[in-house]
From TrEMBL:
<keyword id="KW-0326">Glycosidase</keyword>
<dbReference type="GO" id="GO:0004553">
    <property type="term" value="F:hydrolase activity, hydrolyzing O-glycosyl compounds"/>
</dbReference>
<keyword id="KW-0378">Hydrolase</keyword>
<feature type="domain" description="Beta-galactosidase galactose-binding">
    <location>
        <begin position="74"/>
        <end position="131"/>
    </location>
</feature>
<dbReference type="GO" id="GO:0005975">
    <property type="term" value="P:carbohydrate metabolic process"/>
</dbReference>
<protein>
    <recommendedName>
        <fullName>Beta-galactosidase galactose-binding domain-containing protein</fullName>
    </recommendedName>
</protein>
<dbReference type="InterPro" id="IPR001944">
    <property type="entry name" value="Glycoside_Hdrlase_35"/>
</dbReference>
<dbReference type="InterPro" id="IPR048913">
    <property type="entry name" value="BetaGal_gal-bd"/>
</dbReference>
<dbReference type="InterPro" id="IPR008979">
    <property type="entry name" value="Galactose-bd-like_sf"/>
</dbReference>
<dbReference type="Pfam" id="PF21467">
    <property type="entry name" value="BetaGal_gal-bd"/>
</dbReference>
Length: 133
């Protein structure tokens, strides 16, 4: 999670893939496909979003959300600029682990085990009209 920033093991703190990657402890994985996400351009650089529809009668497609990394996009509109104020993003237990952006600004990381349950959104990040998270 973090890095060691003091003590005798400072020079031995390593992150990432440091040796073979094994599937089920026996099969070495060697062919990798890397997908870059250009967050420096903001979320507007991603144009082919798939709409998530949840049918309450047949919620089978919601189970597809459990496999692999996902990006979600939600637009919202603020009608009155006088109603813009500091606020927060509430993260219940269904937000598992990830990073939240609002209008291209990185709000921070979250994880369902905590410690944070909310991410602060300063009013300066919100605009009258179209916003996105």
């Amino acid at each position: 999670m973090g890095r060691i920033n003091f003590g005798p093991t400072l020079d031995h703190s390593r992150k990432g893939i440091l040796s073979k990657v094994l599937l089920n402890g026996t099969i070495e994985l060697q062919a990798w496909t890397i997908h870059t996400l250009e967050f420096h351009k903001g979320m507007s650089s991603i144009t082919d979003w798939n709409r998530l529809t949840i049918d309450e009668k047949n919620a089978t497609n919601i189970h597809d959300l459990n496999y692999g990394p996902q990006l979600f996009y939600a637009p919202f509109h603020i009608e009155n600029e006088h109603s813009i104020a500091d606020t927060y993003l509430s993260l219940d237990s269904q937000w598992t682990k990830g990073v939240a952006f609002i209008n291209g600004f990185n709000l921070g990381r979250y994880w369902s085990i905590g410690p944070q349950r909310t991410l602060y959104i300063p009013k300066e990040l919100l605009f009258k009209g179209f916003n996105h998270i």
